[in-house]
Specification:
Distance between the termini: 38 Å
Strand content: 15-25%
CATH superfamily of the largest domain: Nucleoside phosphorylase/phosphoribosyltransferase catalytic domain
Number of strands: 13
Strand order of the largest sheet: 3-2-1-4-5-13
Low-confidence stretches: none
Structural class: alpha/beta
CATH topology of the largest domain: Pyrimidine Nucleoside Phosphorylase, Chain A, domain 2
CATH architecture of the largest domain: 3-Layer(aba) Sandwich
Radius of gyration: 22 Å
Order of helices and strands: HHHHEHEHHEHHEHEEHHHHEEHEEEHEE
């Protein structure tokens, strides 16, 4: 068997065997097969597709190029949630403590943000002392102690995917459903969870721009999960608008805390209740959504969920006292954006706001960029709220002087009209 044989087979639309997929994944990861040959194979896959069997073999093969975490010694069903990336997406910071306080084991590995999407790890690392990188033994210890740990992905997790994705990114071979699905699933399945809830976002601020493509991706990932005997479910959610009222790092931590106290923005909390209910059903703690909602209500009203968040911060070395102080988030500069007329506000393009937040310093254009944890955006008003002329509708924050041209940029995402428009956040649920 040679890599040329495998390229020829895929070029001729033949289904690759498990042995062929293992051969190219292992030999490319170890540096034996050069980039130009794998580029050719990837292009053949993009043009001719893959079967579910091939995508499952690819997922397994990539998983086994690195460390696979074994959580079997921890009692109960281990649950995880994955988002395909969004603006203002602090869902895991609220959902995790809720389900953990109710009894589910929430074992999550998260990544950093790049471009207009924010990363959960970046947000948590804005908390002084918070440790995102722990070894497997410490990860298990945290889960046994508190039912929750949110940690960073380590370099020894699915190295094949890192190398293949970097090549896909520069060869025009990113846009392939089986390649995207196997990339996501290889990382999720390597972290040891029994059940995974996928939040597949679509719209202006998402990788998938429409519901049809998001649904297709979700179906690929669910099917791979079933083949590998994992309970994988998906929610298709709307990312035309940011989630909640805050975009940034420190300010999203604060919004997560307020949400756990019962003061969350209604549209954001609709997603929290839906996703938390699904995870509690996957964890077999409840039989239906009605039971789940009752437990979620209690976890928030009793402060159990908020206390679980503080417990997680303390467990991972974070200073939970300082984040409760008013001066913790204290940006030096701010720029208020005011309404230019009266009417109902509608935010139409979350990628614009995510990009502005990145330019303010809240995100990275390259992996080497240093984040300004004070930077971000506060949405004083969200979609369907009524504004009068000169009412503040959003505030831009930064540690550095703010480029006034950003005020013009945010208007590309703002409409004010006489009519309300319903934009549902949850578009579909798939199992």
């Amino acid at each position: 068997m040679t890599i040329l044989d495998i390229i020829e087979n895929k070029k001729n639309r033949k289904e690759l065997s498990q042995e062929e997929i293992n051969f190219f994944v292992q030999n490319y990861t170890s540096g034996i097969i050069p980039d130009y040959q794998i580029s050719s194979l990837l292009m053949a896959i993009v043009l001719n597709g893959m079967t579910l069997k091939e995508a499952t073999f690819l997922t397994q093969s990539m998983m086994h190029t690195g460390k696979i975490i074994d959580l079997s010694e921890i009692k109960g069903i281990k649950v995880d949630k994955h988002s395909t990336g969004g603006v203002g997406d602090k869902v895991s910071l609220v959902l995790g403590p809720i389900v953990a306080s109710i009894g589910a084991v929430f074992a999550k590995m998260s990544g950093r943000g790049l471009g207009h999407t924010g990363g959960t790890i970046d947000k948590l690392e804005s908390i002084p002392g918070f440790g995102c990188y722990v070894n497997e033994m410490q990860f298990k210890k945290l889960l046994k102690k508190s039912n929750i740990a949110i940690i960073g992905q380590t370099d020894d997790l699915v190295p094949a995917d890192k190398k293949l994705y970097a090549l896909r990114d520069v060869t025009g071979t990113v846009n392939s459903m089986p390649l995207i699905a196997s990339s996501i699933m290889s990382k999720k399945l390597a972290t040891g969870s029994d059940a995974i809830l996928l939040d597949v976002k679509c719209g202006s601020g998402a990788f998938m721009k429409n519901e049809k493509d998001a649904t297709e991706l979700a179906k690929w990932m669910i099917s791979i999960g079933k083949k590998l005997k994992k309970d994988v479910r998906a929610e298709i959610t709307n990312m035309d608008q940011p989630l909640g009222r805050m975009i940034g790092n420190k300010n999203e931590i604060l919004e997560a805390m307020e949400s756990l106290k019962g003061n969350g923005e209604p549209r954001f909390m609709e997603l929290i209740y839906s996703s938390s209910s699904e995870i509690l059903m996957q964890a077999k703690i409840v039989k239906n959504k009605k039971e789940a909602i009752k437990l979620i209500d209690d976890a928030i009203k009793s402060q159990k969920a908020y206390k679980k968040f503080i417990e997680m911060i303390n467990n991972q070395g974070g200073d939970s006292k300082i984040i409760c102080q008013p001066q913790w988030w204290n940006p030096k500069y701010k720029l208020i954006i005011k309404a230019n007329k009266e009417g109902y506000l509608r935010l139409t393009n979350s990628v614009v706001l995510g990009t502005v937040a990145m330019k303010l310093g809240a995100g990275r254009q390259t992996k080497e960029d240093i984040i300004d944890n004070e930077a971000g955006i506060e949405l004083v008003k969200v979609s369907n709220e009524y504004v009068k002329k000169n009412d503040p509708i959003m505030i831009l924050y930064s540690s550095k002087e703010i480029d006034l041209s950003l005020s013009k940029e945010v208007w590309k995402s703002i409409e004010i009209s006489k009519n309300l428009k319903n934009d549902p956040i949850i578009l579909n649920n798939l199992k």
